[in-house]
Amino acid sequence: MPLFVIAGVTGRFCTAKSKVLFYCSKKADKTEPIFQQKYSRRKSESWLSGLKRTPRKRESPKDDRRFESPTLRQVRIGQFVNCIDKLSNLFYSIDMIKRAISEKLKYLASKFPVVSIVGPRQSGKTTLVKSVFPEMHYASLEDLDLREFAIKDPRGFLATYKKGVIIDEIQRAPQLFSYIQTAVDKINKNKLFILTGSQNFLVQENISQSLAGRTAILKLLPFSVSELKNTSHKLRAVEDYLFKGFYPRLYDKKISPMDWYPNYIQAYIERDVRMIKNISNLNVFQKFVKLCAGRAGQILNLSSLGNDCGVTHNTAKAWISILEASYIIFLLKPYYKNFNKRLVKMPKLYFYDTGLICSLLDIHNKRQLETHYLKGGLFESFVISEIMKYQLNKGLEPRCYYWRDKTGKEIDCIAETSDSLLQIEIKSSKTIAGDFFDNFKYWTKLVRQERRKSYLIYSGDENQKRSLAEVIGWRDIDSIFN
């Protein structure tokens, strides 16, 4: 978030990233904004069109030369603070990677009085809502003063924002949900509330009680390949993405994954986990998370996890729920509709972000990743996460499964859409081998459906159409939905 500094009556306000300067004149009733960034003059004038202007008295030719820019506009000092909030929201659209979920968010905001965006911490929720709704007021409940205000005087807090507000980290003041319901139903039906939260279980529980039928819920995950591939942030090889991951700050601030992920993990364990559940030994929990990373892409075995970590089966189950609720992992359930054969019915464990797995497994560079025993599981996590991101960005709840029988025959991912059943095999190899299609042959005999489509997704770049399945390179995963 841009930081603003106002030094007395005279001084200046600046943000280095956007290269915008505000100069305060020596007289206390005037402020001179100078725009020095890539917005066009027309856009700058449009932004300032609603502000009252007062003509500046000429003081000397020297002073006039200082403000020769045609984009100069003089505003009253009393309006200066009001401009800051509006301008700070505007900055989020500068050089921002467009999120695929933006259009769905705009549409739902036009239909519902409350829109909730949930997702993992640092997935870009704040940046998204500020860029889509630059005119709205913003309140973060991470701010201690605002949080205390919201908890102790919720009516007064909501009344402060006449036309609605973006409330960030809403789970820190769950009492607000009931008062938001009152504000929507009785006080002002035209108010719009945009709520964001990093802990799904808290938000969902309170929404179900207070805002059922009044709110739309969207889930925002970190970047997808399709969001990055047409930007300056795209990477060359799939191993680069697997190692770096997709959290926005890694691309926005160009931070090394080796520096960012350990701090992210530590902050998550020390802050979020303590809020979710009173875990007495956080070191044991951190070991549990690392053990989960080593099992990415494998069938979940709670007893084995608990034994390796030194905790009970029930504790391991509770901790898996914590990781799910905070969008660190997801469980891929088995697909067993209309089958007579004995099938595996335990879910498979995956992480939403492969960079997080690499950090937890002490993978320090992509060369180490290329020969790592878990490369196949990492690539599976990547592909299935991309499939889920595509559906979530459309406002759809992902319907993804896997299929496996007792003999070891398996389809890595089965995705249900409105008009078809997608069966997907995932291979981390860059070369296509004939035996990659063996499971498709077995599946075709078992499931005879006209709406069935088969895809083989691999880590190469070439797309092919084969008789048993269409071969898709890792860059074009979204094309399976077209």
Structure description:
This protein is of the alpha/beta class and 482 residues long. Helices cover 40% and strands 17% of the residues. The longest helix has 20 residues, at 257-276. Mean pLDDT is 80; it is low at 1-54, 56-82 and 89-94.
Widest beta sheet: strand line-up: 10-9-11-12-13-14-16-15
Q: Give the low-pLDDT segments.
A: 1-54, 56-82, 89-94
Head-to-tail CA distance between termini: 37 Å
Number of helices: 20
Summary of the model, kept short:
With 482 residues, this protein is of the alpha/beta class. It has helices at residues 41-48, 61-66, 77-91, 102-109, 125-132, 144-152, 154-159, 176-187, 200-210, 225-228, 238-244, 248-252, 257-276, 282-293, 302-309, 313-325, 354-360, 366-370, 375-393, 438-446, and strands at 11-15, 20-24, 31-35, 114-118, 137-140, 164-168, 192-197, 215-219, 329-334, 348-351, 400-404, 410-416, 421-427, 452-458, 464-465, 470-473.
Question: What's the layout of helices and strands?
Answer:
Blueprint: E1 11-15, E2 20-24, E3 31-35, H1 41-48, H2 61-66, H3 77-91, H4 102-109, E4 114-118, H5 125-132, E5 137-140, H6 144-152, H7 154-159, E6 164-168, H8 176-187, E7 192-197, H9 200-210, E8 215-219, H10 225-228, H11 238-244, H12 248-252, H13 257-276, H14 282-293, H15 302-309, H16 313-325, E9 329-334, E10 348-351, H17 354-360, H18 366-370, H19 375-393, E11 400-404, E12 410-416, E13 421-427, H20 438-446, E14 452-458, E15 464-465, E16 470-473
Parallel strand pairs: 4-7, 4-8, 5-6, 6-7, 9-11, 13-14, 14-16
Antiparallel strand pairs: 1-2, 2-3, 9-10, 11-12, 12-13, 15-16
Helix pairs in contact: 8-9, 11-17, 13-17, 14-15, 15-16
